[in-house]
Amino acid sequence: MYKKEYVSIEEAMRIGKGKVALRGWVYRERGSSKVKFIVLRDSTDIIQCVFERKKFEKQWGEIDKLQIEASVKISGTIKKDKRAPTNFEIDVDEIEIVGTSENFPINKYQSEEFLLDVRNLAIRSRKLSASLKIRSTVMGALHEYIRSLGYTEVEAPSFSGETSEGGSEVFKFNYFGKTAHLTQSWQFYAENLVSAFEKVYAMAPSFRAEKSKTSRHLTEFWHFEVEAAWADMEEIITVAEGCVQNVIKNVLIKNKKELETLKLNKNRLEKIEIPFPRITYRKAIEKLSEEGYNIKYGDDFGAKEEKRLAEYFNNFVIVTNYPLEILKFYHGEDPKNPGLGMNFNILAPGIGEVIDGSQREPDLNKIIERLKKAKINLGKSDWYLDSRRYGSVPHAGFGLGVERLVQWICNLDNIKNAIPFPRTMTRLTP
């Protein structure tokens, strides 16, 4: 093999001429008895490679049998060629076949369910890997931005003795003879952690046993959660808006190639500006009712209502001040509007809710009163109330669903393609 150090396909095309050595997988193949054309794929791009039989008489039998996803090392001369898929071509001098691939099970005509069954192989597709590269940028940008504001990353357990949200949407399992639950949220821990760190965040999986077969639900999703002592609703909304804005900025800078692979118009991202438009829950209900939606004051929004509100503004939109009666016991009450919560949801066009947040209720007695009214017994999670028993302070926070944000950025039909190995109520493998 050519002695030059191996380079990526992207780097080879940047070099543009002369000898290069590459390694990757067969993306496409075709040819005749005299010449073989292989489009080589690596994690950075694809490039056409030309094999002339007269150069490879001893290896021709092996080369001619190469199929999709076989792994190879090659060396040769790169040159521009506008007829090639990425405008470059390599005239190959040497090849080493590393791993054969026979009858790769995926072709363009297979169903979405089958592709999920072989997700460990389907993940090699250029479109899916492009979405997941954007996902990586999204997660990195969230870490970057929140740390720039002085937040400390603090983890919490994924399973515990009791639940944070309650209800039926919780996974239970046997933990050495005791009943344990997979976490629905990091929030109970966060509201205690602010007394030590003041500003905290976590990026971790959360689990919801929702019996939902929709394009925007997963049973395991990545949750970016933020909590800040001394903050009110307005302050935490500003933090949430900044997180989304920084994500979009980073994707536009770092994922130009992936946006092209997904055939996405970057103008859709560029036009998103903060502050996001706002509407109160009451006004939102009135607007939806005027448009014929079967919804009344006191109802929570479903997916179609959330999507419509975002479509109306053609932007991310913030819905504020839901009735306290439909909120969790820890949401703060608006002192200027009794009966309304100091809470907000941020909705994305075509997706719906991506962020849920609020100013928390700091008064222990009010929380106990609400718990009794809702007939909720915190049980083993009573420690949560220590955040109010010992030096309670005003605080606020939010949770952002990473997959939903990725789904919006990548304009994906289904949230399953916003995570490497999706988990739903019907899917536990691979």
Percent in helix: 25-40%
Looking at the structure, the CATH topology of the largest domain is BirA Bifunctional Protein, domain 2
**Residue windows where pLDDT falls under 50 for at least 5 positions:** none
Beta-strand level of the residues, as a percent range?
Answer: 25-35%
Largest sheet: 8 strands, mixed
CATH superfamily of the largest domain: Bira Bifunctional Protein, Domain 2
Mean pLDDT comes to 95
The separation of the N and C termini measures: 37 Å
> Can you tell me the overall shape?
elongated
* Main CATH class of the largest domain: Alpha Beta
- The run of helices and strands is HEEEHEEHHHEEEEHEEHHHEHHEEEHHEH
| CATH level-two architecture of the largest domain | 2-Layer Sandwich
Radius of gyration, in angstroms, nearest whole number: 26 Å
Query: How many helical elements?
Result: 14
Order the strands across the largest sheet as they lie in space. 6-10-11-16-15-14-13-12
Would you report the number of β strands? Answer: 16
Number of domains: 2
Sheet/helix structural class: alpha+beta
Structure description:
With 430 residues, this protein is α+β, with helices and mostly antiparallel strands. The protein has two domains: 9-99, Beta Barrel (OB fold (Dihydrolipoamide Acetyltransferase, E2P)); 116-418, BirA Bifunctional Protein, domain 2. 31% of the residues lie in helices and 26% in strands. It contains 14 helices and 16 strands. The chain has an eight-stranded mixed sheet, sandwiched between helices. Strands 1-2-3-5-4 form a five-stranded mixed barrel. A three-stranded antiparallel sheet has the order 7-9-8, with no helix packed on it. The two termini are 37 Å apart. The mean pLDDT is 95.
